[in-house]
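ok so I'm stuck.
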Amino acid sequence: MTTNNFSPATVGWVAIATGASSILAVLCLALMFTVNRSFGTANDVLNGIVGISSVILAWMLYAEHRARSPLLSQVALVLALLGAIFVVIGSILVIFKVTGFVLAGFYTSVGNALIGCWLVAFCYSMQRGDGFPNNLITLGLVVGVLMAMGFLVIPGIVAGIDSMESLPWYLASGYVGFLATYLLYPVWTIGLGRNLLLK
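replied:
not stuck anymore, here's the structure
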């Protein structure tokens, strides 16, 4: 594996930490609804951490990606960076009560969609070699496409919609991206991490 001076083990642990952060975000979301609403802030912070750790992971994998797809890897890294920025903006908006959770969630959803595009680009490029197992590559493609469904909420950002009561059905469909980020993205990142730790 070609890395930017990072050992496979280091990249593997970052991948696992990314997945673990997403799982913790899900747990905090569940606790917010069942125990105390204060867990919502922890969820928002963890969302931001997932976005940041995802772009760090993309950067660590960049040399491997560039070796297979020089141009696509550059575009994909920029998309991952933009995704992290949108995710962090979403977290900031809701933590500091600039907007409600609906509109802030739209920003996070778009960020996750951009990260999903990086994931698709990375896994597409990895099909050309034997660096990763085929099932991990296929899973990454599926997860990335589902995460990209978060782009469906862009009209909600443009319209400034910030209430569940006024949420059109077509915007609600964008939450498929959230489900993919919370439930499937950790499976891929942890699987990637385990694969790298075994190298």
